[in-house]
Amino acid sequence: AIGYTQSTGAIKGQVTEDTFLEPLAFTNISIKDRNISVTSDVDGFFEIPNLDVGVYVLEFSFVGYKTELLTVNVEANKTEVANVLMPLSTLSTSHITGLLASSTQANTNN
């Protein structure tokens, strides 16, 4: 007789912002089309345990940053590593640039 073996795996990784390469705490990580989500810790680390074997699309989202998608293949009894760099959204970048330009112009009118 063939014994039943548990065929689950896990995904873990770290979320980092891509400007200064600092960990991005409290990023939302969800699995598309599944009701599964976790949040990265203060050092940007996360783990999603007990996943059935298969291919998952992770969605990383954080206010002010571009949402990133990452496809991960989960194998039985293994932990897959999914590290991601989160770029600032173009809206945030242009807003910051606009503020810097305004600030510079204000200072030159002395």
What key attributes describe this structure?
single chain, 110 residues, alpha/beta, four-stranded mixed beta sheet, four-stranded antiparallel beta sheet, disordered C terminus
Structural class: alpha/beta
- How many strands, what sense, and barrel or not for the largest sheet? 4 strands, mixed
How many DSSP helices? 1
- Helical residue percent band: 10-25%
Beta-strand share of residues:
35-45%
Write down the overall mean pLDDT: 85
Give the end-to-end Cα distance, rounded to a whole number of Å. Answer: 87 Å
Task: Give the beta-strand count.
Answer: 8
Low-pLDDT residue intervals, each spanning 5 or more residues:
106-110
Q: Element order, helices and strands?
A: EEEEEEEEH
The shape, in one word, is: elongated
Q: What Rg is obtained from the alpha carbons, in whole angstroms?
A: 19 Å
Word description of this protein:
The chain is an alpha/beta fold and 110 residues long. 17% of the residues lie in helices and 43% in strands. Strands 1, 4, 7 and 8 form a four-stranded mixed β-sheet that branches. A four-stranded antiparallel β-sheet has the order 3-2-5-6, with no helix packed on it. Strand 5 and strand 6 form a beta hairpin. The longest helix has 19 residues.
